[in-house]
Design a protein that fits this description.
Blueprint lengths: L8 H5 L4 E6 L5 E6 L1 E4 L2 E7 L3 H8 L2 E6 L9 E11 L3 H13 L13 E13 L2
Antiparallel strand pairs: 1-2, 1-5, 3-4, 4-7, 5-6, 6-7
Length: about 130
């Protein structure tokens, strides 16, 4: 697992939007904006079962994440890695924590009836930070 430079933690820990790239069944890229956080150098994001992202990741766990640093857009942070786990355990609490970080809301306001949340855990393999 690659280490994220300590000075890049602030980019992840702030409510900066990330773009997650996965691979579609036909080999084309699929890119989606996501909210992220971390546990040490492990990256986490949240999605719902049945969406394209988890379907792609079940087939091919490779991802690339580009994080936009709102305070310095010329300081890119890119992480390539693999999904180690997709789990429903703790996923509802995780999306609520992300809603707090990104929206200032205590609970995720866009939850759909019957939606099953998934927390996705990524181990970085390559990290690029700065120009």
């Amino acid at each position: 697992m690659a280490q994220i430079p300590e000075e890049a933690y602030a980019v992840i820990d702030s409510p900066n939007l990330a773009h997650l790239a996965t691979i579609n069944p036909d080999g084309s890229p699929q890119v989606t904006p996501v909210w992220i956080d971390r546990e040490g150098d492990t990256i986490l994001f949240n999605t719902a079962r049945g969406r394209q992202k988890p379907r792609n990741l079940e087939r091919d766990p490779r991802v690339s994440i580009s994080i936009h640093n709102a305070e310095n857009p010329y300081q890119p942070l890119t992480i390539q890695g693999r999904v180690q786990e997709m789990t429903g355990e703790g996923a509802d609490d995780h999306i609520d924590a992300l809603a707090k970080k990104y929206l200032g809301e205590d609970t995720y306001p866009f939850r759909q009836p019957g939606e099953e949340r998934l927390m996705v855990i990524i181990h970085p393999e390559k990290v690029s930070f700065g120009m």
